[in-house]
Amino acid sequence: MRPEQEKAGVIGKADLLVEQLARHGELGPAELATLTAIPRSTVYRLLEGLTDIGLVAPMPDGRSALALKWLHLADAARGGMFEWSGAHAILEDLNKSTGQTVFLTVPRQTDTVCIDWVQGRGMDALMLRPGQVLPFHAGAAGRAALAALPDAVANTYLRSFPHKVFNARTLTDPDAIRADIARTRERAYALSEEDVTFGIGAIGIAIQTPGHKRLIGCLSLAGPVQEIRVYQTDLAAALFDARRRLLSGRGAGAGT
């Protein structure tokens, strides 16, 4: 193996570890080895290297977690995203008007990653935070994104089972997910009722370029499930207004 190939292999394995820590939070070497199929001895060496450069923080119980340095890197990356320059102010306005926790997420191949948020009152149990991800079949942001994808892309995702299960309310049956896609498209927003975290509800909408040509992100808000359920129409209207502001050029670029 040439040196550059060996380096690429090491980087790829380190990326797998970082991805799993972003998805699951604190993990031990044995758990990381199982999730990534990387030998445990290699996992130890990679964690040591990632710790040395400040990307991973060791926990007292022997597990590892992503370090706070990732927040600074995320801030820098978000600042370089022309589409989302100024979006945080709109999230703050949405938080003030609704009292709920507000999220801005962007789609990846099979999930959505949170790039910004404004925390609502008493919401410490939420699964989604900056840098963390939710799959397309779970949560308001993920389900709004899935409904905005072309049918061919959505069907490809549905065939890629098994999908992650958060609790008994998580949608896993392909027919149930297709029905949810239809409902989301009909009312123009996704409604999540405890399918990720018990006691928490959420509403999410897709952000697409003009003419609904390309999915570029999702806006969502989360709070106590009863509040979300009762006030979903008003909360959805607030999301629609925030999206309009984002796409008007004050919070997002032209969206090309």
Automatic annotation (TrEMBL):
One of its GO terms (biological process) is negative regulation of DNA-templated transcription. It holds the Pfam family IclR_C. The keyword Aminoacyl-tRNA synthetase does not apply. Keywords: DNA-binding, Transcription, Transcription regulation. The keyword ATP-binding does not apply. InterPro entries: GAF-like_dom_sf (IPR029016), HTH_MetabolicPath_Reg (IPR050707), Tscrpt_reg_IclR_C (IPR014757), Tscrpt_reg_IclR_N (IPR005471), WH-like_DNA-bd_sf (IPR036388), WH_DNA-bd_sf (IPR036390). SUPFAM superfamilies: GAF domain-like (SSF55781), Winged helix' DNA-binding domain (SSF46785). GO terms for molecular function: DNA binding; DNA-binding transcription factor activity. This is Helix-turn-helix domain-containing protein. It comes from Brytella acorum. The lineage of its organism: Bacteria, Pseudomonadati, Pseudomonadota, Alphaproteobacteria, Acetobacterales.
